[in-house]
Amino acid sequence: MQFNHYGGEAALLAADLVNAYAREPGPNRAPGTKQQSDTGQELHTEQETDTGQGPDAEQRPDPGRQTGPQQQTGPEQRTGPSDPSALLAARGIVDHALTPAQQRDVRAWAHRLAPCFGPQDLAERCARLNALLDEASSRPRIALHDGTPHFHYSAPGSDAAAHVRALTAAGLASIVCHADARRLGRCARTPCGRVFVDTSRAGRRAYCSVRCANNDAVARHRATRRPG
Ligand SMILES: [Zn+2]
Ligand SMILES: [Zn+2]
After folding, report:
1. Relative to the alpha carbon of 213, which ligand is closest?
2. Predicted ipTM?
């Protein structure tokens, strides 16, 4: 699949934002899927994040942060820093700090992006993305600044949060139209729920990482040996 800045990178940013601000455990659950219930021990492995929490990130106690075993996922399920600026900069999207209002906008948008990942009916996914494209209503244009014509998904000088909305909606849409909708995945390991853009050649990834694939294999193996 072709992975240019405004398709691939934008889709990867969408996944980053979901993982930082709107992560829900489990794949889009099929009816009858069993929850990993046991001791909650499983959940501890999910505390670390790989979302740009650098040494310079301010470590401030967050009153909203849940401690202890996580039982449920509120709408503010958050694993990233409250300011998404670093995440955006890491993808080369927005290179200046966001205002608090823009930060809120971007975090809220992550919750809209989240349901677009994971196994689902194609028509359903397209309807979701069309709603996002509608909401992002940007003014795409052809840019020539680097000598090669390419799309810019919002006009110069547009609001940074609006730019992120336009870019991520278009990025996900571009995966669906130019690659395969099933490449917008959600980790099959129930307590994980990290989303990902499957850039593998075969496009068959079910897990966010090798670690999750291995852990899930071990868990399934144990489950088959459990008495009762
Ligand atoms: Zn450009
Ligand atoms: Zn995972």
Report:
1. 2
2. 0.86
